[in-house]
Amino acid sequence: MLFWVFVFLLTRQSSLTRGHPNLLVRAPTEGSCDCTINSCRTLFDIIWGCLVTIFACTWVALHQNVPDPDLGWFSLLLRKLRMMLMTIIAPEVIVGFAARQFLSARWISKEFKVSKTHGFFCNMGGFVSEKGHPVSSIKQLPDYMPAIQKIKKADIEDKSKGDTLSKGVAIAQGLWFVTQCLARVSQHLPLTELEVATLAFAVLSVIIRLLWLHKPLDVQQPIVVARSEVDIDPLQEEDTTPLSDSVTLIDKIFSGISSIYQEYSPLSSTSVPSFYISGIYQEYSPLSSTSVPNFYSIEIDAKDTYRFLAFAGVCGIGSTFGSIHCAAWNALFPSMAEMWIWRISSVFIAAYPALTMLFAAINVWAPYNNITVAVLWSFMVAGFVVYPLCRLFLIILSFTTLRALPPSVFVDVNWSNYIPHL
């Protein structure tokens, strides 16, 4: 509720500078800048502050799974750059990935009486057998859990490149940017389109960091654990992740999303594709791998209704991300074309996740037939083409609109209104 109030206030204050975009020089201003260090900010300050925040929300915020031990530094760099690009284009996908790992880690923590850090470490391929294969499936966990329980939480955290304090500071950084935007709104000072776009990243970044608060950061080497001495069925050696019986329609939807981007044939490939955004890898076998895929998380036993609610939550976050961009609906743009491109792109980014959730609900609870499936896939395929274009348009416009800004944009927040004697 507070979020929508903020969007309303932001739209209302931006409407104060509404007018024909070509009449920028004659637009009324709500403040003046006397070019003193205490009352002004420069264009460099705006750009630098936004870029630093975006970098912290993408590169720094990413908590990747443990990579293959044979990967070199350049391959590791490309691996993280690809994930950073995914965060910029579709940050709600990363939120979904983080939420899935959080739920799985919490289930492991409760089921086996270990910490959430242990649960995350299992999900990210942090524990491997003596043969170097990741312990990353429900079938494997009971056999290796006695050894995992003997490992101290501090030993796992020691492998992390960031502790709770550093993650808390990063969360505070995102909240500080949100606070600055709120302060500008309350003082009727306009925000640039770049700041509105950065605000969307900052809000999602706080959510991602909270979900990954107990996940170790940038772990490069796993921990070897021994199997307990129990009688094991030889067939269990061919362990794989749950297949058709446990994969719901929602999982199939997500898996289908990935196949649109990348054709994959297990008979002609030596590795599992890394773009399965659902975390469901139907062909992945831990005993034939040395690491888990980029977006992997252990599949837990959950009801279809619970799965759908989680899916709906991710779609809701995606709509929130687009709605924040809609807050600049009545902002002053250099041209009419840029204004309408921003509006259309923002509406699509906000509406597409919600419509996807609606179509998914129809397919989950309505009778399964070819017509509904065809409509769903046609809608989703069209969205996979239009959605990245809309995101690209918003990113480009965030910078091109900086060429013509109203004077009131450069007026800094007067913090003495909130903190006496500052």
Automatic annotation (TrEMBL):
- Top-level lineage group: Eukaryota
Question: Which N-terminal stretch is annotated as signal sequence?
Answer: 1-19
Q: Which residues form a coiled coil?
A: none
Transmembrane region positions?
A: 43-62, 83-103, 308-333, 339-362, 374-399
UniProtKB keywords: Membrane, Signal, Transmembrane, Transmembrane helix
Its name, as the record gives it, is Uncharacterized protein
The record lists the organism as: Mycena metata
